[in-house]
Amino acid sequence: MKQEHNYLTTKNSKVFPSILVIFLLIYVVEYVAVVAFNESPFSHPAMMDVSIAIVCSFWYLVRYRRDKLLCFELMFLPIFIIGSFYSDIVLSTLNFSIDGVGGAFRNAIIDTTIVNKSRLVQMITLFVFMLGCIIGHKQEREASSTWILPNEYLRVNYGAIIKILVILLLAEVLKNYLNGNFSTWFSYGSGVADNERNQGLGHIDSLCLLSTVVEFTRLASLGVASARQFLSKVNRLYLLEIIIVSLLLILSGNRNEMLLICLPVVVAYSIFVKQIPNKYILLGLALGLVVMVYSGLTRQGDTISMSDIDLYSITRDFSLVQINCDYLVKYTDDGHLHLFSTLPASLLGGIPYLGPVIFNALGLDLTSQSTYITTEGLAAWEGTGLGTSLVGDLYYNAKLPFVIVFMSLFGYAISRMHIRFLVERRYSLLYVLIYLYIVSNAVYFVRQQWDFPISRIMYCFIILVVLYKIFNKPHLI
């Protein structure tokens, strides 16, 4: 108890939060000056921003997460910095000679004022996110070393739910086979676009995530607390499902999707069974990085050569984040404020199986979403599959106030769930689902639309609630 309590109380120094607040105020003042006068009162080189972002992110991880390193921030912060400063960190090493993806680099914003404003928005985003995390780094209940689930979760027939989810997964694979998506999953040629190659995989990822939530909830209800107990009591059908799907993905042209299957399992194990030591987390992070790099290098073929390996190639998945943000800031300030106009249509995707039917019946479209806007405006090849910019998308919806509100609340929520699960051991079906989804998508969060995770989580939660209601048997307790 005392050791868990110290995880929070020994980190109450106000020095670091104060530094973040000072930096935040400086960047907000800079932003206001750029908006009002088209120039910044604090002129400094871009690499200073990069250095500040790296130092503050590292400081945050050491101070608040070093004892429980497996967290969203460990994966999100480095990728956020790479994506936000891509031209300074990556393109500068190539002397900006690369053509980029389908013209996007050639058509990138070069207006210094716009680029500076975009950079300021991204720095403000970083600081409000970390401040939100720090505010959420608090303990509301006594620390516990064991999980105590509410009675409603002790009388659920988890085995039956796993079987239903496996059947749904097989049906999803069959559907994709019949409509031709299955063949593109295993296509390596350059004629297949990235967004075509992973068509239909979203629901498969979601169903595997649901199985992970269900199985580890069952293991928590049994009090499983060691690797040996885990191996002896884990549902064999669930284990077979995860292994087979992972193997299929690693053999396909969607190798990076395997991380979305395996990461929730690793995080859930660390939460519900036994905390994974930091040295193994860092080793796993390195292996995950190797998988991502290999996936990126073999996306257009099944072989690689040393000549293919450069900083751009291994970070290609995040190459458009900064450019997309620059473009969306300019597009928004030119009078194209989105104001959440496609949010209702996006959320229809969160209604399992019926959402697309309703969407088509109402004749809705999503062409004003930021992904479409940046693809058209930057003349990027529609097959890049590299998404948008989270920061740019937030700005596009309601400018800087929404960026600040969303990212601070998001940081607070992520930090609270981290403490709730790893220190207090308090269960919530919805929070577990949210946390596992967000952490498993931490690497790609920087290039997603802000409402995309909401739609996916809705989809998963509705299925879970229905299955839990059906297979909740009072006589089991």
Structure description:
- The chain has 477 residues and is mainly α.
- It has a domain at 2-142.
- The chain has 22 helices and no strands.
- It has helices spanning 2-9, 15-37, 46-65, 72-84, 86-89, 112-136, 158-178, 181-185, 194-197, 201-221, 227-233, 236-251, 258-272, 278-297, 311-314, 321-333, 343-347, 355-361, 370-377, 390-424, 429-440, 452-470.
- Helix 3 packs antiparallel against helix 4 (72-84), helix 12 (236-251) packs antiparallel against helix 13 (258-272) and helix 16 packs across helix 20 (390-424).
- The radius of gyration is 23 Å and the shape is globular.
- Residues 1-5 have low confidence and may be disordered.
- Keywords: Ligase, Membrane, Transmembrane, Transmembrane helix.
- This is Lipid A core-O-antigen ligase and related enzymes.
- The chain crosses the membrane at residues 15-36, 42-62, 69-87, 120-137, 158-178, 237-252, 258-273, 280-297, 394-415, 427-446, 452-471.
